[in-house]
Amino acid sequence: MYKLLKGFLKDYKFQLIVGPLCKLLEAIFELIVPLVMASIIDVGVANRDTDYVLKMGGLMVLLGVVGLCSALVCQYNASVASQGTGTKIRNALFKHINTLSHKELDKLGTPSLITRMTNDINQVQNAVAMLIRLVIRAPFLVIGAMVMAMIINLKLSLIFFAAGILIALVLYFVMSKSVPFFKAIQKKLDKVSLVSRENLSGNRVIRAFSKQKQEQQRFEEISDDLSSTSIKIGKLSALLSPVTYVITNLAIVLIVWFGSKDANGGMIMSGDIIALVNYMTQILLAMVVVANLVVLFTKASASAARINQVFETKSTVTENPKTHLSPHKNAPKIEFDKVSFSYSKGKNALEDISFKINRGETVGIIGGTGSGKSTLINLIPRFYDATEGSVLVDGENVKDYPFSLLRKQIGIVPQQSVLFSGTVRDNMKWQNENATDEEILKALEIAQAKDFVLEKPMGLDAPVTQGGKNFSGGQRQRLCIARAIVSKPEILILDDSFSALDFATDAALRKALKEQTENMTVIIVSQRCSTIKNSDLILVLDDGRLVGKGIHRELFESCKAYEEICLSQLEKEEVLK
What we know:
alpha/beta
C-alpha cells in the first residue's frame, strides 16, 4: 500500500503532520483524565472538599473540550487528505486505463476495472483517513496506559502486561485466519460485477429467451459464494469483542481484587484503583481499535495491490513518434506489408497480409465470421500493433505517428453502435467540437439520418439516452456514421456498420458517400456482397489469410471463397449485374 500512496500523499504533508499531532494531543488528555479522577476521589471526596471537586471537575471538562477540538481538527485534516488522495488515485487510474491498448483492456476486463475504480479505491481512501486519525492514537493509548499504570503501582501493572499480551495473541490469531479471505472477496466482487453487467446490458436477450430464472440462479450462486466468504470473516472477527472483553474484565477483577487488599494495607489509594480500572478500559478500547485497523489495512492492502496491478500494466502499443514525419503524397494512403498478428501465443489471427489502398478509393473487406476482418482494420489506428510486418499510412509506419495525429485523420464506426448520453448535437461534435450545424446536417444527410433527426421535436437538441437506447439499431448506426463523417477524416472505416440497414438505405448511403466525400478513403467491412460489390478494391479474407483482392467481377471468377459468399446471398444473375 505504501508503494501506491507515497506518490499521492505528497500534496498532503501538512494534513499528515497536523492530523496525527492533534489526535496525539487528544490521547494525552485522555491519559490525564484518570489521574484527575483519582485526585478527586483521594483528595476532594475523602476530605469532603467541594471546592476542590468542582475545581478538578472543571479541569476535566476543560480537558474534554480541548480534546474534542483536537479531534475535530484531526477529523477535518483526515477528510481532506483521504478524499483528496482518493480523487487523485481515481483520476490517475482513469487516465492510465485510457493509455492502455485493447490487448490490456481485454486482459484486465471491464467489470474488474470498474471494481478497482470504485470499491478498491474506496478501501484505500478509508485507510488513509484511519491512518491519520487512529494509527498513532491507538498504540499511544496502549503504551501510555501501561506506563501510567507502572507509575501508579508497579506490581498491579503486571496485570496490564499480561492482559495486553493475551489480547495481542487473540488479535494475531484472528487476523492470521482472516487475511487470506480478503483478497478472495475482492476477486468475488469482480465476478458479481461481471454477472451484473452482463445481465443489465443483455437484459433484452435474457427476456427474449426467458432465461430470467437461470440468470437469477447464476447471480445467486455467485452472491452466495461472496456471502459465505464474508460470513467466515465475520465469524472470525466476531471472536474479537467477546474474547478481548473477557480478558479485559478479568484483568479489571484482578486489579480490584489485589488493589483492594493493598488499599486495606495502606499501600495504594482508592482513587489509584479507579485510575487503573480506567486505564485498563482504555487499553481494551484501543486494542479493539487496533483490531479494526488491522482488518481495514488488510483490506486496503489487498485493494492497493489490485490498483497497483493496473498502474504496472504497460501498454504494448506505445507512442514513439518520429521528430519529423514526411508523408508521401504519391505513396498509397494505406499499405499492409507482410503483416501478421496474434492476440496471444499460438495461431496468428492474421497471416502474411499485403495490399495497397490508394487515396480516395472505396475498399470493401469481406469474409466469413472469424476471418480477421475487424482485426485487420484495428491495426490501422493502432488499437493493436502488428506482430510482424508493417502498416503504413501515407508511406509512414503507423508506429511513427503520434496517436493524436494518426487517429485525427481516421473516422471509425465500430460494429457495436456506441452513442453517449446528451444530445444529438453533442454526439456529432465528439471529434470536431467546432462543427457547425450546417456541417452536422450535411453529415446526417450523407448518413441518411437527417430526416428522422429533424422529425424529433428538438431536432439536433433531441436527447440521447445512455447507449442511444431511445433510437433503433439502424438509427444508431446511421448516427455513428454521421458522427465519423462530421470530423471530415481522410480515412473512413465502417466496420460492419450497415448490418441494421435495409437494402435501400444501404444503397443510398453508399451512393452519398461516393458522391459527397471527395478524396476520402473509405473502407467498408461487411458480410453483404451487395454492399461492397461496387468498391474500387475488394479484399477477401479467409481464416486470417488474404485469399483474394481485386474488383467484383474478376474476384467472382478467380476467387473460390468470394464466389461462395456471393452465391450464398444472391442468384448468379444478380451477382453479375
